[in-house]
UniProtKB/TrEMBL annotation:
Listed EC numbers: 7.3.2.6, 7.5.2.13
Molecular function per GO: ABC-type polyamine transporter activity; ABC-type tungstate transporter activity; ATP binding; ATP hydrolysis activity
Name of protein: Molybdate/tungstate import ATP-binding protein WtpC
GO cellular component terms listed in the entry, alphabetical order: ATP-binding cassette (ABC) transporter complex
Entry keyword annotation includes Ribosomal protein: no
NCBIfam families to which the protein is assigned, alphabetical: potA (TIGR01187)
Pfam families named in the record: ABC_tran (PF00005), TOBE_2 (PF08402)
InterPro entries associated with the record: AAA+_ATPase, ABC_SmlMolc_Importer, ABC_transporter-like_ATP-bd, ABC_transporter-like_CS, Mo/tungstate-bd_C_term_dom, NA-bd_OB-fold, P-loop_NTPase, PotA-like
Membrane topology summary: Peripheral membrane protein
Keywords: ATP-binding, Cell membrane, Membrane, Molybdenum, Nucleotide-binding, Translocase, Transport
Compartments it resides in: Cell membrane
Length: 364
């Protein structure tokens, strides 16, 4: 097994589109890394440069410690799965899975038969070898596409939106399945998706892309809880974002003046009074508070951020409940509580509080 490294990788397409702007990442052997970002941000182009279907305009691509920047796809030992599965319709499932090994010309018939059976076992479809792709469901075809990519024992698995065409339930099932198979064989995997939930639930690390650059690379919980930028906070999950200006900085805490509220936040190094910032608050971090404690909106006596307002909306999300609160200043705040702690109803007035430590400060 082997790692993948990108150094200063840039892609300008003929015609002038600068799709990828000098990205760097070291992906460890056996790691599952997801490239996630909005449509057109350069995810597929980056993946295709790893696979060898596109050549970088600048920078280097390394696989297993070897510089493969100019190597054609067949010399890179990667297996790729596409959104549309791309199975060969006129071939049986056995023939589809055997295809890469046959093409390599390095294996005996016995080796190929054994490996095909092993791969069909791995994707839990041991009995479909004699069928053709049109005799399988969408989810089954996707498993076969995975088996076909893995059969020649590639050094890395490259997945371009492989679950996007499946319905929600099947997609969730395949997320678990794909991760199980990846962990079982320990293969280095790069997964492309624009689906933020998929990125957060499946990856060891994710690289959030925006406009051809990596905005942030890190484990899902870190990128979610501690976003580096307003873009990352907004793109991944739901965020309450308060734009304002730092009024003062003291003992690692910043006081931030926003148009409707003053907030206190933990302050990352380098942010000074006068800096324009965004304060990011995840909906799960709010606490409910007895409205009689302090009241009002903004900082209370012990420096906790409080908001008073009216519940305008409530919806159940399964194990949690989402509320929307309209503050007296006219701001909508999203609060998520565990089911069972959902005593509020639309029309109720309430006070919610958030600690400075749960207010993340990012540059605007
Ligand atoms: P999506 O999620 O919509 O697939 P993406 O993040 O994968 O988007 P890319 O497909 O990598 O984005 O495209 C990045 C940019 O490069 C876009 O502006 C796109 O229009 C442009 N682009 C992609 N392929 C080509 C091409 N062959 N020639 C010219 N421009 C291209």
């Amino acid at each position: 097994m082997s790692g993948i490294s990108l150094e200063g990788v840039t892609k300008r397409y003929p015609g002038g589109v600068l799709a990828v702007k000098g990205v760097d990442i070291d992906i460890e052997s056996g790691e599952f890394v997801t490239l996630v970002g909005p449509s057109g941000c350069g995810k597929t182009t980056t993946l295709r440069m790893i696979a060898g279907f596109e050549t970088p305009t600048d920078g280097t691509v390394g696989i297993d410690g070897e510089n493969v920047t100019d190597a054609p796809p067949y010399e890179r030992d990667t297996g790729m799965v596409f959104q549309d599965f791309a199975l060969f319709p006129h071939m049986t499932i056995d023939q589809n899975v055997a295809y890469g090994m046959e093409a390599a010309g390095e294996y005996t018939d016995e080796e190929i038969d054994a490996r095909v059976a092993e791969m069909l076992e791995l994707v839990e479809l041991p009995d479909v070898g004699d069928r053709t792709p049109d005799q399988l469901s969408g989810g089954q075809q996707q498993r076969i596409a995975l088996a076909r990519a893995l059969a020649p024992k590639p050094k890395a698995l490259l997945l371009d939106e492989p679950l996007a065409s499946l319905d929600k339930k099947l997609r969730e099932q395949m997320q678990v399945e794909l991760r199980r198979i990846q962990q079982e064989i320990g293969i280095t995997t790069v997964f492309v998706t624009h689906n933020q939930e998929e990125a957060l639930t499946m990856s060891d690390r994710l690289a959030v892309m925006n406009d051809g650059r990596f905005e942030q690379i890190g484990p899902p919980e870190e990128v979610y809880d501690d976003p580096d930028s307003r873009f990352v906070a907004d793109f991944l999950g739901t965020a309450n974002i308060f734009d304002g200006t730092v009024a003062s900085v003291e003992d690692g805490y910043a006081t931030v003046d926003c148009p409707d509220v003053t907030l206190q936040s933990t302050n990352p190094a380098g942010v000074e009074a006068g800096t324009e910032v965004s304060v990011v608050v995840r909906p799960e971090r709010f606490r409910l508070r007895d409205a009689s404690t302090d009241g009002g909106v903004g900082l209370d006596a012990d420096g906790t951020n409080v908001f008073e307002g009216e519940v305008t909306f409530k919806r159940h999300l399964g194990s949690s409940v989402e509320f929307r609160l309209e503050t007296d200043g006219g701001r909508e705040i999203v609060v998520v509580r565990r089911s069972g702690l959902d005593e509020l109803e639309p029309g109720d007035r309430t006070t919610v509080a958030i600690d400075a430590e749960d207010c993340r400060l990012v540059e605007a």
